[in-house]
């Protein structure tokens, strides 16, 4: 599945496919996923940083990060360091989600994208 966002800068996109809507809503229903979303609202964080802040086992954190990046809520980037010890970090990619019911389209999720965050003191490059 591709992420629901089209790019940075406050763009809006819509999900109308039932499977995409169910996947996103299911992810948002998960309390661990919501904790990770809340933790990434102000800065990009690594999996270990998120594990500590959200009081989750690292294996659970990675599983939830996979879910959140799969549905396009988070973006994975590479945090470059001068020491050569690069790590993945995760940034929040949405600003808001609005659910509506349209007589012609049915259930529609409208997503407003947020600006990608960059952690202080690090260079960020897109991860593959």
From TrEMBL:
SUPFAM superfamilies attached to this UniProt entry: Winged helix' DNA-binding domain
InterPro entries with a match to the protein in the record: WH-like_DNA-bd_sf (IPR036388), WH_DNA-bd_sf (IPR036390)
Pfam families given in the database record: HTH_20
Gene3D superfamilies recorded: Winged helix-like DNA-binding domain superfamily/Winged helix DNA-binding domain
Official protein name in the record: Helix-turn-helix domain-containing protein
């Amino acid at each position: 599945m591709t992420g629901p966002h089209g790019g940075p800068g406050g763009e809006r996109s819509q999900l109308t496919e039932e499977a995409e809507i169910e996947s996103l809503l299911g992810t948002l229903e998960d309390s661990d996923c919501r904790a990770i979303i809340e933790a990434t609202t102000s800065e990009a964080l690594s999996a270990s940083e998120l594990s500590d802040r959200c009081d989750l086992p690292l294996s659970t954190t990675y599983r939830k990060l996979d879910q959140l990046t799969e549905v396009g809520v988070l973006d994975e980037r590479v945090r470059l360091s001068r020491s050569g010890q690069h790590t993945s970090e995760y940034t929040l990619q949405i600003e808001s989600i609005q659910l509506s019911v349209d007589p012609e389209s049915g259930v529609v999720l409208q997503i407003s994208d947020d600006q990608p965050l960059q952690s202080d003191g690090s260079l960020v490059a897109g991860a593959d």
